[in-house]
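Researcher: Going back to the complex we discussed earlier. I've cleaned up the inputs and rechecked each line, so this should be the final set. Can you rerun the prediction on the complete assembly and write out the structure?
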Amino acid sequence: MEHFIGIINYIVFFAITAGTYGVLSLGLNIQWGYTGLINFGIAGFYAVGAYTSALLSGPLPSAWDLRTFGGFELPFIVGLLGAAVVSGLLALLIGTLTLRLKADYLAIATIGIAETIRLILKNESWLTNSVWGLKGIPSPLYNPIQHGIGAFLKGHPNLPLWLHDLIFKGYDWFYLLLILAVLALLYFIIERIIRSPWGRVLKAVREDEVATEMSGKSTFKFKMQSLVLGAMIMGIGGSLYAHYARFVSPLSFRPLYGTFIIWVMLILGGSGNNKGAILGGFIVWGLWAGTDFLTVYLPFSATQSAALRVVAIGALLILVLLFRPQGLLSEEKRVSTILKE
Amino acid sequence: MDILAGIPQLIVYGIISGSILALGGVGLSLTYSILGFANFAHGDLMALGAYIALGLLALFGGLGVLNNPIGPLSFGLGLVLAFLIALVLTAIAAILIDKMIYKPLRRSGPVIVMISSIGVAIALRNILLFFWGPQPWYYIEKIQISMKVPWLLGVRIKPDELFIIATAITLVILLHLFLTRTRMGKAMRATADNMELARVTGINTERVILWTWGIGALLAAAGGILAGIENKFITPELGWQMLLSIFAAVILGGIGSPYGAIVGGMVIGLSEEISTAFISTGYKPAVAFAIMIIMLLVKPTGLFGEKS
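Model: Rerun complete. Updated structure for the full complex:
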């Protein structure tokens, strides 16, 4: 039974991570899935969201910190919204520079901005504490919940060990619910706006930019709004990550975990389908985490096994593009809410 | 004035890294203009070439003759041989990748091919990581003393670095002769201008694509190996570290202009090195990006690009 509880606790932890990736994947779905914008710098928006939230909600610098700025100890919700705003502003800047140019330039520029942000995180230690990162980011309602759990366990000393272990990890259940609530909220908002006239213009931009421009729509404006909205959601993803991990450092936002894997999630799940975007997050993170357990059976070192898994993820992306380009859940082609076909 | 005193030396470093970036940039520019997509795996082709050369060098290790240094250089004939064979093998690898992945995806459009190239990039990098690990591998263990050039403001340069510059110049001249004097070179330029038109005039565009990959990868491998000689070692991150600079070189020179990419590579190499006199070296990789953004704002077609 104890072993079983360990597995359940792991699954909760897994679902929190996968859910965070689901948020990032939803953000990318607005940009790439609905508008056809290529953002290869998700890690940049993700990192900016995480760091903004950490600085807004986190503690003052401690004596052994390099940083001298930040730590405003504001509530979680301020951090979350601040993360969305700052990520959105960053997208506004990049969009202004590149959205009037060919699509490829956005792809290249976003890689550049993500790398530049990583350099800033490493070098501007007054703000980011350099490679040591920001510590002590508070998890929302952590103290009251842990306190309640502690009091409950004290009051019931005769609980079986497995139940004790399950309740002990109660905070993770709360955070999972929080993530699922954010996912559900974002899902319904995005579904709603994509079905609006605004959402239809985004799809028109994706299908044929010139024709959209000819119909009197400023494609630049719509692309900008899509880029900013997607980036804001990525910022929220960063905030959710920071408040759970309670620690952020430049290492968390390397291109592999910060950008590439999210592309695989969306492409596999189904570009242009919000259910697909979330599903992709869970499946790809499931494959990634699941193969970690298999590697003990392989005669390779830990580095080699990890490399092999990344090669497999790269191959997965290519195989999906080759054999099922629409992903697992393909986009609903819906012309009208009245006409069913 | 102390800052300025170091500039001539930084210019020398800039020319060396510019030569390497130029080789990477030319290949990227060729594939970009002929295949019509930004190949994000180009940096990793450079790394692949560097590791193939490393493998061959290890293979030659038993043959002492090949390790005897040539003249003032710190490496022997073995590295030169490994260099040449690695160019051919990398070209073959690029053609195989095209046949297996990019060619079937071409009908889905250039954007999909571009996304797939990110998958190729990450797979290639991790294949290198799998076989060689994350630690640096050394081409040359020997430390070379740099020579002082009194008539050139007293800058210091190593014989190996002269070899790098000379090799890059030779390859660029060969490429120029290929593009202007051979039938295939002319066909490549025609295809880059307008693929439909080229096809109508009877050019076998599939063959052109094959040659484009071959030559692009060959130059990429050369750049990767020369980077290995300059740094003395290579890691699987080599390609990723150079990617942004190569793209900046191509955009600066104008997409589709191989000569532009050479100039772009030089400008980026020089700017990156000279910037270290003024700003923290930690931001060196961002310099290429900043120049690229300025170019996109001022003249998005690049220095030598045509108006589209």
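Model: Worth noting: Residues 143 and 272 of chain A are 40 Å apart (CA to CA).
Researcher: Good, that matches what I expected from the previous run.
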